[in-house]
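Late entry, evening session. Most of the bench is empty. Finally got around to the prediction I had been postponing all week. Sequence below, unchanged from the version circulated by S.P.
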Amino acid sequence: MQEIINWIVSLNIPLVNEGVARFIMHAVLASIVAVVAPAMLIILTWLERKIIARIQDRIGPNRAGPFGLLQAVADMIKMFTKEDITPAAADRIVYNIAPGLAMISAIMTFAVIPFAPGFVGSDLNVAVLYIVAVGGLGTLAILMGGWASNNKYALLGAFRVVAMLLTYEIPMIIALITVTMAAGSMSMASITEAQSGMWYIVSLPVVFLIFFLAGIAETGRSPFDLIEAESELVAGFHTEYSGIKFGMFMIAEYVHMFALSFFCAILFLGGWQIPFIDVAALPGPIGPILGFIALTVKVFFFVFIMMWFRGTLPRFRIDHLLDFGWKFLVPLSLALMIGVAVVVRFFAPGSNAAIPVEPGPLSGLGYAGEVVALLAVNILIAAIAVAIVSNVARRSRSKGLRAVAAVEPLAASGK
């Protein structure tokens, strides 16, 4: 990015100094992201329909354009031309703000994503906090839409936001804190660079699973799409929305899914890093281009996994979903955070030699020792959690069998 800024300054345009050139560069990047991120809806909807069709032994879109590629364009035209209705009893201001807020919050998360070496919209040193704060606006938008519609089904869908999304926000934030401790920074670019030796999906596999599952729940996608369960709530929080406003909620969902894929790729798959290749050291534009291609491949891998989930897994029941979040993911994520904190302190400064900390008792084992210790802690805590859950399930099953055995003699006697 600095090379492009220097090139703009070298053009000797009047009143264009380095500060103005930097502003122009950021404005151009922001405009590209603001246009490309929502436009990905066209590709993602077509891709999801094709993938789920193949899973269900169907063909999928194949009429509008070659391979059905124009089907999403037809849907977009339909959304723009359908009648836009606002219920008479709705809170008009809040009702109309909610769709735009949902879409804007999804787009804003891309501001801190490092797309390639040196190419990041804003390299905030608190980027993780920024992601959590901006992501919360999407939850608020759904709550606003359901409440302002003045519809009982929409309100029930909004209540499920409070019950479900906030439940899964806790383990997701704890997973982010765990990655931050391992990397020694909240900057997304620094977290990417900290994985030059080993990706965190290898050293923190259970933390990755928690973050990924909680992230899917946060986006409201199957099997965690209880906020818009059509069979129960007649589409949930957006029941009263039509036309382009309904389309904006759909854009927000797909952009959130796209953003989650970026976060998973950056936080756990090294972002633009490629094994055995120092992308940042490659000459000229080769490094940024290769890094962006690598990041894109990783992102679409996670996109495919989420679409695969939607095509194969049934929807959770609301009480099962909340039990899974509160009784399993939250304590597991807390235990992992404590375990990773202990390992990082014992191996300090470890891979974060730039941070001035007192050396830990195991710092002599180096980065490789830290990776092995983090992996061992993840496996150990996960094994303990599975053993506890299995024991509780076995005791519950035995209790149920004893209750059935006690009732059967009474049923046989007719009492």
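Two things to note before I forget:
The chain is about 70% helix and 0% strand.
The two ends are 82 Å apart (CA to CA).
Will write this up properly tomorrow.
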